[in-house]
Amino acid sequence: MDKPKLIISSVYAAIIAIIFVVVITVGAELSAPLKDWLKDFFGHHWTSKSIFSVLLYVIATIVLYLSHHKYSDDRLKKTLGFLFISTVLGTVILTLFFMGHYFQLF
Question: What are the residue boundaries of the structural domains of the chain, listed by start?
Answer without folding.
Answer: 3-102
